[in-house]
Amino acid sequence: MERRDTTGFVITMNEALRIARVEERDIYLLPQMANRHGLITGASGTGKTITLQVLAEKFSRIGVPVFVADVKGDLAGLSRPGEQSRALERATRLGLDEFEPYAAPVTFWDVFGKKGHPIRATVSEMGPLLLSRLLGLTQTQRGALNAVFQIADAQGLLLLDVKDLRAMLDYVGAHASEFRGQYGNLSRATLGAIQRNLLLLNELGAESLFGEPSFDLFDFLRTDENGRGMINLLAADQLIRSPQMYATILLWLLALLFATLPEVGDLEKPKLVFFFDEAHLLFSDTPKAMVSKIEQMVRLIRSKGVGVYFVSQSPSDIPEIILGQLGNRVQHALRAFTPHDQRVVRAAAQTFRSNPSLDLESAITNLAVGEALISFLDDQGMPEATERAWVLPPHSYIGPVSEHVRYQLISQSLLAGKYEHAVDRESAYELLQARAARAAQEADMLAVSSSSPKTTAPPKSKSTKKQKEKAPPAESQSAVHDITSYAGQRMTKAVDKKVRGIFGSFWGASSSH
C-alpha cells in the first residue's frame, strides 16, 4: 500500500527496508521478520549508533513505532533533517541518487523530567524483584521487601511513591511480631537496611521515577499525522551513570510490554521495535534464573508484535540462551589486540551463517567505519548468507540537537502536559498516618479516662444517640478509605501483578544463584 505524506515522500507501508548496499546490490530487512529480534554489535566508534539510527528511521517510515534509549545524546538528531556532507558523500559513493534529507517524528522522554516528558512508575508497578535489583539488595533484604509488598496487597495499601514504601517499611517494622507467623522473621535491622538503600534514589535524583501519573504504555505505540511510527527517545546520558538503574528501567518497560499487549501472532510488520542499547548492562551480575525469564520473555514477546534489538560491543555480551533468539544481525568491526580479543572475534564469526566467498573472522577485524557483516532473515525465517556491506547513511541529522530545538519539540508534542505535573493522592503513606493518629488519640483518651474519678454519666439525649448511630466508627471510615483507594487502582494493579508475576514466579529459584 502506497501513500504520500505531507512532505511529498511516497510511503510504502509494508515495503522491505533497505539497510545496506554491496556492489550496487541492496540488502533488505523484511518487516514481517523484524519481530524475530536482532543484534547490532561492534567496537566503539565503528558505526553502531548510525546503524541504529538508520533502522529507527526505516521502521518509522513504514508506520512502526520505535523505542530507543539515547545513551550519548546523539540520537536526538533523528528529529532534524540531515545536513552533513559526509552523509551526502556516502550516499553519492553508494549510488543513492534519490537520497534526500528528512526528519523523523520524535517524542522525547526522561526519567528525571528535564530533557523530555517524565516517565514514571508506581512502586507497585516496579514490583519487589526489579526494585531489589535497582537498590542492590541482598537475598535476605529481597525476601523482606517481597513480604512488605504482600502485606501491602493484603491490607489494600497502595504503594505509589517512595514515601509510601518508607511508611510501609516503618509500619511492618513496628508490627513485625504480628506478621512473623505468616511472613517469617522481619527484623528491624533488615528493614532499616532497605530504608538506607532507598536514600540512594534520592542521591541519584531518581525519586521522581516513582509516582503518578504513571506511564501509559500506549503512548509508545503512536503514529504521526502522516502514518509514520513515532520514535520514542529516552534521554539516558544521565541515567547511564547508574548502570543498574538504567538496565532495570528498560527491563521494566520490556516487562510492561509483555504483560500488557495481547497475542497477535505473525504480522506484516511489528507493533513496536524496542532497541536495548548497552545491552551488556542488562546481564551484568544477573542471576541465571532471571536471565532464563528474560529469554522466555524475549522469545514469547514476538507473538505480541514486538521486535527486540540488542546493541552491544560483542555477541559474547549476550547470554547464549538469548543470543539464539536474535535472527537479524549486524556486526561492525572488532579489534583483536590480545588473545582474549581474538577468541571474541572467533566466537562472533561463528554466530553468522557462513559465506564461502568470505572469511568472516578476518573480515570482522578489517571492517571500515560504517561497514558491517550483515545477515537478515529471509521470507522463510532462515538466515541469509552473510554479506560484507556498507550501511546506508541516515536521512536525519547525525548528532545531538540544541536545547532550544529539543524543548520546542517537547512543548509542541501531543503529550505536552500529560505527565509534567505529579499527582499525590491518598495511598499507603496517608492511610498509615491516619491509622497512627487515631491510635494515638485513642491512647490519650484511654489515659484520661483511667486517671479521672468515676462519675455518674448524665442521661443520653435522643439526638445525641441518633447522631452516633449515623456516624460510622473511625475504623470503619478507615476501611472505606482503604477500599475506595484500592478500587480506584484495581485496573492498574491487575497489570502491576502481571508485571510482577513475570519475575515473581522464580523468586525462590533466584535466591539459589
Feature tags:
513 residues; alpha/beta; 12-stranded mixed beta sheet; two-stranded antiparallel sheet; 43% helix; elongated; disordered C terminus
Brief summary:
This protein has 513 residues and is of the alpha/beta class. 43% of the residues lie in helices and 12% in strands.
Tell me about this structure.
This protein has 513 residues and is an alpha/beta fold. Helices cover 43% and strands 12% of the residues. The strands form 2 sheets. Strands 4-3-14-13-12-5-11-10-6-9-7-8 form a 12-stranded mixed β-sheet, with helices on both faces. The chain has a two-stranded antiparallel ribbon with strand order 1-2. α3 (123-135) runs parallel beside α17 (490-504). The two termini are 51 Å apart.
State the helix count: 18
The total of beta strands comes to 14
Average predicted confidence as pLDDT? 86
Point out poorly predicted stretches. 463-491, 505-513
What is the 3D form? elongated
Rg measurement, Å:
28 Å
Helix-residue proportion: 40-55%
Q: What summary fits the major beta sheet?
A: 12 strands, mixed
SS content category: alpha/beta
Provide the spatial order of strands within the biggest beta sheet.
4-3-14-13-12-5-11-10-6-9-7-8
Give the distance, in angstroms, between the N- and C-terminal Cα atoms. 51 Å
- Which band does the percent of strand residues land in? 5-15%
